[in-house]
């Protein structure tokens, strides 16, 4: 077996708010059904589902690798009227990271690796 892609299904506490959050991050939205939306940007694709399980959402972690962490921080810090939280850019031995909690409690590690 040779995989060509791996896609995650992200739960949403408030489906419309989560859709707004991912659009604000710059992802393109394509409805797949009444309860499922495909989000993509470049080669990155995931599914947002109209389904919520608090334990799952609060334990879900994803890593989004970016080439410019400051640009990512600027985009994130401009998001308004959506229930999210984030921490400032943190330097690590392997690069830089922004911890970003989405509206359903999912934790994104927005990462720029050092060369």
What does this structure look like?
This is Glyoxalase-like domain protein. This protein is an alpha+beta fold and 115 residues long. It has a single domain (9-113), classed as 2,3-Dihydroxybiphenyl 1,2-Dioxygenase, domain 1 (Roll). It has three helices and nine strands, in the order βαβββαβαββββ. It has helices at residues 15-24, 54-59, 69-77, and strands spanning 9-11, 28-33, 36-41, 44-49, 61-65, 85-86, 90-92, 95-101, 107-113. The termini are far apart.
Defining traits:
9 strands; alpha+beta; 4-stranded mixed sheet; 115 residues; 2,3-Dihydroxybiphenyl 1,2-Dioxygenase, domain 1; 3 helices
Largest sheet: 5 strands, mixed
Strand content: 35-45%
Helix content: 10-25%
Question: So what's the CATH class?
Answer: Alpha Beta
Can you tell me the CATH topology? 2,3-Dihydroxybiphenyl 1,2-Dioxygenase, domain 1
Overall outline: globular
Distance between the termini: 31 Å
| The named CATH superfamily | 2,3-Dihydroxybiphenyl 1,2-Dioxygenase, domain 1
A few lines on this structure:
The chain is an alpha+beta fold. The chain has three helices and nine strands.
Mind sketching the topology for me?
Blueprint (H helix, E strand, L loop, with lengths): L8 E3 L3 H10 L3 E6 L2 E6 L2 E6 L4 H6 L1 E5 L3 H9 L7 E2 L3 E3 L2 E7 L5 E7 L2
Parallel strand pairs: 1-4, 5-9
Antiparallel strand pairs: 2-3, 3-4, 6-8, 7-8, 8-9
């Amino acid at each position: 077996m040779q995989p060509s892609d791996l896609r995650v299904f992200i739960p949403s506490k408030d489906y419309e708010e989560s859709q707004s959050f991912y659009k604000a991050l710059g992802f393109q939205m394509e409805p797949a059904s009444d309860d499922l939306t495909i989000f993509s940007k470049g080669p990155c694709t995931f599914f947002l589902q109209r389904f919520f399980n608090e334990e799952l959402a609060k334990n879900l972690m994803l890593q989004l690798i970016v080439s410019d962490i400051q640009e990512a921080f600027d985009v994130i810090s401009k998001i308004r009227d959506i229930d999210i939280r984030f921490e400032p850019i943190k330097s690590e031995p392997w690069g830089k990271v922004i911890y970003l909690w989405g509206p359903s409690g999912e934790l994104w590690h927005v990462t720029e690796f050092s060369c």
